[in-house]
Amino acid sequence: MFEFDKNKHYPKETESRVVVRFQDCDPLQHLNNAKYFDYFFNAREDQVPKLYGVEMIDFIRKYKAAWVVYNHTISYIRPARVGEWVRIMSRVIWHDHQTVLIEYYMTDDNKEELKTLLWTTMRYVDMAQGKSTEHAGAVKEFLLAVSEKIDIENTSIKGRIKEIKAKL
Q1: Which tens digits make up the pLDDT trace of 47-99?
Q2: How many domains does the chain have?
Q3: Is residue 86 part of a domain?
Q4: Quick one: CA dihedral 151, 155, 160, 163, positive or negative?
Q5: Burial class (CB in 10 A: 0-12, 13-18, 19+), 117
Q6: 91-141, pLDDT tens digit by residue?
Q7: 78 with 114: CB under 8 angstroms?
Q8: Is pLDDT above 80 for 13?
Q9: Which pLDDT score, from 0 to 100, does residue 44 have?
Q10: DSSP string over 80-137
């Protein structure tokens, strides 16, 4: 279970390096649009335990609540191609008492070309009642430790694409 350590540095961003598989591509040898979601979610699921020492299932078991996706916003910028090595980054860019916004993006292996940007918004839901509930305990500490805290009221996905491209 996550235990906040005020003396520890918590990286704000996860990163994975993966190869685009033939089976995940369309006839044009581009990563199938739906498969981007699998690549993003699998990368984050692999990296969160390594970086933060917590499995999401531990939060679910202890707090009897889970995050439920209610919105995706995705921009496909450049295709990822069969056999290509890519980098996948993810980070919590905003949260409040019951919602999180996770940003995922994919680049080429050298981190020079942005391929895709995904925002996934999730609500924290009590599993017994099926209703929104507030982040509490270690969940709240975890989010405070790892969030970027981007001003999403004044940021659009198009704006984030420009920001990320400028940093590459």
Answers
A1: 999 999 888 898 899 999 999 999 999 999 999 999 999 999 999 999 999 99
A2: 1
A3: yes
A4: negative
A5: buried
A6: 999 999 999 999 999 999 999 999 999 999 999 999 999 999 999 988 999
A7: yes
A8: yes
A9: 96
A10: -BTT-EEEEEEEEEEE-SSEEEEEEEEEETTS-SEEEEEEEEEEEEETTTTEE----H
CA distance 85 to 55: 26
Provide the domain limits for residue 90: 13-166
Q: Give bridge partners of residue 47 from the DSSP assignment.
A: none
In a domain, 1, yes or no: no
Residue 5, in any domain of the structure: no
Answer whether residue 70 is part of any domain.
yes
- Please answer whether residues 62 and 135 qualify as being in contact, where contact means their C-beta atoms are separated by less than 8 angstroms: no
Are 76 and 117 contacting, i.e. CB atoms less than 8 angstroms apart? no
CATH code, 92: 3.10.129.10
